[in-house]
Specification:
Layout lengths: L1 E7 L5 H16 L5 E7 L10 H9 L14 H6 L2 E4 L2 H10 L7 E3 L18 H28 L2
Parallel strand pairs: 1-2, 1-3, 3-4
Length: about 160
C-alpha cells in the first residue's frame, strides 16, 4: 500500500483535513487498499485534537476527524511515506533541509496541479475560513489526483 503524508505546521487544521479528504476520495474510487493518507506537523505537539471549527466543517462534508490527534514529523514518519505533500513553501523547505534523504518525495500540494502557493492556515479564523480551506484542499486534490498517484507509485 502506498502512503501519502500531508504536512502542515501543527497538524491540527490543514493536514488532517487533507488526510480525511484524500482517504474519502480513495474510498469513492475503490482504491482504499492501494493508497492511504496520514498527516503530521513540522511544529506539532503530539496528541492535540483538531479544533471544533475544523471538526464541524469536516462533519458537514461527511467526514469525522474527531479522533484525529496531532503528531510531530519524524524520520520514521518521513521514511514510511511514499509521497509527502506540504501546505506551505516553508514546510517543504524545512523538510528537505532536515531530512535531505527524502527531499525528492516532498512536494507542495498546490504545485502538483499548478503554480506553487501557500495554503492559508485557518486556525482560529472561524468556521467559514475552515470551510474555505477545506474546499480549496478538495479542489487541489481533484486537480492533482492523477499526478499524486503517479508520484506515489514512482516511490521505491
Amino acid at each position: 500500500m502506498k502512503k501519502i503524508l500531508f504536512v502542515c505546521t501543527a497538524n491540527i487544521a490543514r493536514s488532517p483535513m487533507a488526510e480525511a479528504l484524500f482517504n474519502q476520495k480513495m474510498e469513492e474510487l475503490g482504491l482504499v487498499d492501494r493508497y492511504h493518507a496520514e498527516s503530521a506537523g513540522t511544529w506539532a505537539v503530539d496528541g492535540i485534537p483538531a479544533p471544533a471549527d475544523g471538526q464541524n466543517v469536516m462533519k458537514s462534508l461527511g467526514l469525522d476527524t474527531s479522533t484525529h490527534r496531532s503528531r510531530e514529523i519524524s524520520d520514521e514518519i518521513m521514511n514510511a511515506a511514499d509521497l509527502i505533500l506540504t501546505m506551505e513553501t516553508g514546510h517543504k523547505e524545512a523538510l528537505q533541509v532536515e531530512y535531505p534523504s527524502y527531499r525528492d518525495k516532498v512536494w507542495m500540494l498546490s504545485e502538483i496541479s499548478g503554480p506553487a502557493y501557500d495554503i492559508t492556515d485557518p486556525y482560529m479564523q472561524g468556521y467559514e475560513k475552515y470551510l474555505e480551506i477545506a474546499r480549496e484542499i478538495d479542489r487541489l486534490l481533484d486537480r492533482g489526483m492523477v499526478r499524486i498517484l503517479e508520484l506515489a507509485e514512482e516511490s521505491e
